[in-house]
Design a protein that fits this description.
It is built from five helices and 36 strands. By secondary structure, the protein is mainly beta. The protein has a single domain, classed as 7 Propeller (Methylamine Dehydrogenase, Chain H).
Length: 562
């Protein structure tokens, strides 16, 4: 069944279909007046559709291939004092379980994100939004996401009496002094949904927010997953994966929604341009295949009506489920986003990397101490896209063999700096160490400083949060220093009654934000705390999150690093 779209279409390109024009109505809510408890909702008695089975996912896989070594690979450096942790405090953690048909139960990961303004820190996880006093770490307000977005939730039936408002993202726009939040709303039992968008009315996130419900521009039955938020000088960009009810690869799609940023900040009704079919220019046989995650860039001071905006994906001719290595990234360029948006695309050739997306935990899972249960590294999808001083920075996980032996594969991080004008890879590096896995990367750059945040886990390391940094003083492709944000304290094990997944869900991503005044990096992520869950417990294994300010020491203070 081919996907159909609704709206007014103007033009198509080789890279996308659209735009299809729509307008979304605004609602406003004052978060300081929302009760922190979950609202009671009517539970539906209709059956819930079962998610795709392991057998269905297995049918989508291809065979394994040997992965050629990367041209540049770096093992973790010794600490040299470049990085230091300033203010730090615990973030929010609220693991919960969602139920599906036939007793399927999944404990949700944190999906932790952070945005720092001048004096407030906003963190979102899969259940809540929290506002912190930036220096003391005291929580000024914590709001369940389903309560925050209640004015734009029209349905009344929820799974287990609880709505599914998940996959949150948050950004601070330093060009406008506003906070922006996006999230996914998935309605049961129809397994349909929408994206939600919220923008703070001012620099104070404790006050009013303008809310929007962004509908999926596809008219066949299905639901959405893994929404991503980006912005430039004039527009807000949302991408999402569309999964059809008829679970066939040809019916999948990735959509792009372009929104007028200033209209959203004013709380006006929101004109939008929707695109579908974010496909690659055909490689073989004239048939383009799908990208499952397309990352929109964070570039608040560029792009817009007078520049170029960028999006990128780590798949070209393979899927995120596939184990076969790939050799390219896909780059989309958007011009004139608000009046006559135009989208072009091209492929950037890079060193081979693996899919890490199969269902075999012995191949694709990340090891941890004291258990045979493995952690899901979330594949080789790009985890973010950052634009700084004319370069794009991005990173993903990849299967890697440091010892060049038959059974020595772990997960490592591949990161890139790319010139989007020439599509030249200016530098890239593969980062990690033998026997231990590095995954869920996030990379951000400010001036001559680059920070790479990630999770690390292995036979001797519980799932932890770390960060690596570099300046322009070191050779291309290398990180200069590493710092521990939060050590893990136990394995992450979901009791069988709560999850039939092995490897267990983790992540699905972390957050980094640059302070608008100090230029310091702030970071949040998920780790495994000291929390032992009995098999007969009614609660899932709990995650912890940590928020930390990371500074780069002055070069003179560090001394000679040669």
């Amino acid at each position: 069944m081919a996907a159909t779209v609704s709206g007014t279409a103007r033009a198509d390109s080789d890279c996308v279909s659209g735009p299809f024009e729509r307008t979304y109505e605004a609602e406003t809510i004052n978060v300081s007046k929302i009760a922190n408890g979950r609202k009671e909702r009517e539970e539906s008695d209709k059956p819930v559709e079962d998610p795709p089975s392991d057998e269905q996912l297995e049918n989508m896989k291809q065979g394994n291939e040997e992965i050629p070594p990367a041209a540049s690979a770096q093992q973790v450096p010794d600490s040299n004092g470049l990085l230091d942790i300033g203010t730090e405090y615990d973030g929010i953690g609220d693991a919960f379980v969602l139920s599906g048909a036939e007793g399927r139960r999944v404990a949700m990961p944190s999906d932790a994100q952070v945005a720092v303004g001048r004096s407030k820190t906003v963190q979102v996880v899969n259940s809540s939004l929290a506002i912190f006093n930036q220096r003391s770490g005291n929580i000024e307000l914590q709001v369940p996401l389903e309560n925050m977005f209640d004015p734009v939730i029209t349905e009344e039936r929820f799974l287990d009496g609880m709505p599914k408002v998940v996959d949150p993202r948050v950004r601070y726009d330093p060009n406008a002094d506003r906070f922006v939040v996006s999230t996914l709303w998935r309605h049961y039992p129809t397994v349909s949904g929408a994206m939600f968008l919220a923008v703070s009315d001012s620099s104070n996130p404790n006050g009013p927010w303008h809310l929007y419900r962004i509908s999926v521009p596809i008219d066949i039955p299905g639901f959405t997953d893994y929404p991503v938020l980006g912005l430039d000088r004039d527009a807000i960009y949302l991408t999402e994966l569309f999964i059809p009810d008829e679970f066939a690869l040809g019916n999948f799609d990735v959509t792009l929604t372009i929104l007028d940023k200033q209209a959203a900040y004013r709380g006006d009704n929101l004109p939008a341009s929707n695109f579908t079919g974010l496909f690659l220019v055909p490689i073989t046989g004239g048939v383009p295949l799908l990208h499952l995650t397309v990352q929109p860039a964070f570039q608040p001071f560029s792009g817009g009506d007078s520049g170029t905006y960028y999006l990128m994906a780590s798949q070209t001719h393979k899927q995120v489920f596939f184990d076969i290595f790939d050799t390219g990234l896909t780059l989309w360029k958007v011009t004139d986003p608000l009046d006559e948006p135009s989208v072009t695309c091209s492929v950037i050739t890079v060193d081979p990397f693996s899919g890490l997306g199969g269902s075999d935990p012995a191949i694709d899972g990340v090891r941890q101490p004291d258990t045979d249960v493995r952690v899901d590294p979330v594949g080789d999808r790009l985890m973010n896209l950052d634009y700084s001083d004319g370069s794009l920075w991005t990173a993903h996980a990849t299967k890697y063999n440091w010892e060049d032996g038959p059974d020595e594969y772990v997960t490592a991080i591949r990161w890139y700096e790319i010139d989007p004008t020439t599509t030249e890879v200016l530098q890239s590096g593969t980062y990690g160490e033998p026997g231990t896995s590095y995954f869920i990367p996030r990379i951000e750059t400010s001036g001559d400083r680059t920070l790479l945040g990630y999770n690390v886990s292995g036979p001797d390391t519980y799932p932890s949060i770390k960060a690596a940094g570099r300046t322009t003083d070191v050779p291309d492709g290398e990180m200069e220093d590493v710092v521990v944000i939060q050590e893990g304290k136990s394995p992450m094990e979901h009791p069988t009654k709560f999850s039939d997944r092995d490897p267990v869900k983790w992540g699905d991503y972390m957050g980094i934000s640059v302070h608008p005044k100090t230029d310091h990096f702030w970071m949040t992520g998920q780790y495994s705390p000291d929390y032992d869950v009995p098999q007969d417990s009614e609660k899932p294994d709990q995650y912890g999150t940590r928020i930390a300010e990371i500074t780069f020491e002055d070069e003179d203070a560090r001394g000679d690093r040669s």
